[in-house]
Amino acid sequence: MEEKEIQEALNAHWHASAVGDVNAEHDIYDDDVICDYPQSGERIFGRSNLQALRSHHPGKPSGFDVKRMIGKGDLWITEYTITYQDQLAYTVSIMEFRKGKVIHETQYFTDPFEAPEWRSQWVES
User: Fold this and answer.
1) What is this structure's pTM?
2) CA 13, 62, 29 angle in degrees (round to 5)?
């Protein structure tokens, strides 16, 4: 699969995620995909389990914003934010492709935090 085709598939995936289309959202995944959530120690095996897990999330996202997407060949990274019940989560998704489908995804989630005063002289807000 060409990189342009992967970018198009990723754009369709993130758009479907943003509008809550759980069927289109999961078209990008191989049937035997593995998805890791390292912060919680969870591993999801298979597209059907991943789709079921996401379909049953009690707090459907009310906001979804892709910040950037970069990649080459079969490895692609997307940085984005998700808003769940008025709480923002900064998210990074690392996707590995094989034959045009995602075979492995790792997702990291983090909450925003207050910037410490001690470094204010070197940064912009």
Assistant:
1) 0.90
2) 20
